From TrEMBL:
Species: Gossypium raimondii (Peruvian cotton)
Main location per the UniProt record: nucleus
Cellular component GO terms, alphabetical: nucleus
Subcellular localization, as worded in the UniProt entry: Nucleus
GO molecular function, one term: zinc ion binding
Location of the RING-type domain: 134-179
InterPro entries attached to this UniProt entry: CHFR_Znf-CRD, E3_ubiquitin-ligase_CHFR, Znf_C3HC4_RING-type, Znf_RING, Znf_RING/FYVE/PHD
Pfam families associated with the record: zf-C3HC4, zf-CRD
Keywords tagged on the record: Cell cycle, Metal-binding, Nucleus, Transferase, Ubl conjugation pathway, Zinc, Zinc-finger
Protein name per the record: RING-type domain-containing protein
Amino acid sequence: MAEVGESSGSQSSSQIWAKLVPLQAQQSDIEVCSDEMIVSSQITSSSQVKHDWCKITRNADMLTAMMQNKSSNDILVDDAVVRREDVVEIKCGTEMVLGPNREEYLSYIFKLMPSQETCKKKLKISVDVEHAKCSICLNIWHDVITIAPCLHNFCNGCFSEWLKRSQKKHSGVLCPQCRAVVQFAGRNPFLRNIEEEILQADPSLKRSDEEIALIDSYATIRSNLAIRSERGSRRKRGWAYDGDEYASEESDGVGPQCPQCGSAIGGFQCNQQTIHIQCQNCGGMMPSRADMDVPQHCSGCDGSFCGAYWHAQRVTRSEYHPVCNHETFRPVYAAS
């Protein structure tokens, strides 16, 4: 059972913030519960008499403390001699010998205890709820995605529907908020945490289960998508996901390229409206194909992998096109 140091009467804490852990197995821990505390315990293993031997004062940084020698003997602190009434700084891991030699006197290690304040300390950020709303549905984001290069954020389901309609009607995809050309879309885990915190703080902002089910049924963005567009393709030379740059002999080859952008393979060739997925394993690009039974995403982690798709297309890795071995992405069947 742990001992408790004798309090000097200064401000007390409701939690044990430090311990003195003995190096001798037969001794007990000494718990430090006050911001300033006189520690009283045995100083030798042969004596059962307790002595006041130090005063420990917690520092404002919560990571260190000051130790004042209250013993009639010298104390060794990390092998440095601390004389009577002298004060030294101690930190987690500091060794204290309660006398001038470790053979005769007991030894303790000063150990800081994790507290709710130090372990769960969070930076509080003030967020205007209006800045956490999707400009399409005007609700708090749900399964939030971020588009680039404008970096606006939308519900996955809302932007997925916008993306589908834009592909049918236009040569490029424009941001619903600022009308900039969209080149990339992907989930944003950081903003999703903020989304959840907002809804926990104000449940009145939550949508009904029916609304959530509906918007989830629209969501198609599962991994990072590279979106090609005719607009600005010549201005942004070297953008490897740009349709014109794929076919251009002047392309500088920056970034991974999709084999089906340059020529028809397996009866399919990418066009200006084709959305691309980047493989999480090799970094290569493949078209997002909803018309095939070949899996492009893992049903477990939702990650995108190109091995199965390119194996079905009989495409192998080349100097210009990263392609995974199809063995890296194989179906796992549940035992019947």
